[in-house]
Amino acid sequence: MTRHSPTTETRTVLRTILSAGVLIVLLVLVCLGTAAAACPNDEDMGTVNFRGVVTGEPTIDSVGAGGVNVRIDEILSDPIGNLTVGDVVTVGYPIVPPFADIDATVGDLVEVCGEYCGAPEPLDWSGVGDHIVWLHAPDHFYRLLSPTAAASNATGTPKDIYLDDEDVYATGSGFRAGTDVDIFVVSHRGWGWSDGDSIPSRGLVTVSDGTVSTSGDLSPVLVWHAPLVPDECGIGYDIVIDANQNGVYDASTDGLDSGSPSFDVIIRMPSAPVPALTPIGVIALVGLLCVIGMFRIRRRFD
Questions:
Q1: Radius of gyration of the chain from Cα atoms?
Q2: What secondary structure does DSSP assign to 85-125, as a single string?
Q3: Architecture of domain 148-266
Q4: Which of 112, 234, 224, 106 is nearest to 167 (CA)?
Q5: Residue 171 in contact with residue 219, Cβ under 8 Å?
Q6: Strands 237-242, 161-163: pairing kind
Q7: Which superkingdom, per the lineage (predicted)?
Q8: How far apart (Å, rounded) are the C-alpha atoms in residues 183 and 178?
Q9: Does the model's pTM come out above 0.85?
Q10: Is the terminal CB of the chain with fewer CB neighbours within 10 Å at N or C?
Q11: Mean pLDDT of 145-151
Q12: Which CATH number among 2.60.40, 3.40.50, 2.30.29, 2.40.50 corresponds to the domain 47-145?
């Protein structure tokens, strides 16, 4: 079989196709570069940094862009003061490294650092939160955090001191939505907790089931009913929320409140009784007051 060299016309067609392919690639790179360098609504307003819980995903029709909605639990940096705890922020990002591998799950506890873009919703976005934050710079990030745990009262207010006649509750956030967890109250571990440590199940330990809400939060759960007993070593107690119920502390998935320690128990001191007066004592007191009164009256007239 004889091979023939490409004709001039064939070469021209091949060059045209190659040039068109290169042009398309360059246009895509330019578009991605533009998306990665600016807010989708063109309203860059400074860098913000916050922590919160993933609540869902917006609908984004833009090619090469992704997003996740995060409810703010803690504001770390907000120079202009636009954010408020409890607000929902839509975190948008170009689907290019290092943001291409962002995997958001409802209930995840995350920390975000990015460009604040205000509140206006881009035309091709829907279901966005109260604010938009765009990730594009080298110092921007979206990262998972370990779940949290805290000792609290029945309304969820954190507590670190309990009287022996009070009940201990536990709360948490950042867990997988709709799952059950085990909650342990254990003696404070002064040397700290390490990933893989077994959770003690002896002594004054309370284990209870708590159902995680659809937002990843654990509402106050009663974990130790009064009467309480101070730790025998005087070092207090820690709370561990075992997310996968395996009896082992997993730093990436379990909640821990170890504080210094999580909480202490104090014995309530009984009130000192007020001595009661007997009838004879009352008569004697009245007589004494009368004598004092007569003495003062006589001195006044003298």
A1: 34
A2: TT-EEEEEEESSTTSTT----TT-EEEEEEEE--SPPPTTE
A3: Sandwich (2.60)
A4: 224
A5: yes
A6: unpaired
A7: Archaea
A8: 16
A9: no
A10: N
A11: 90
A12: 2.40.50
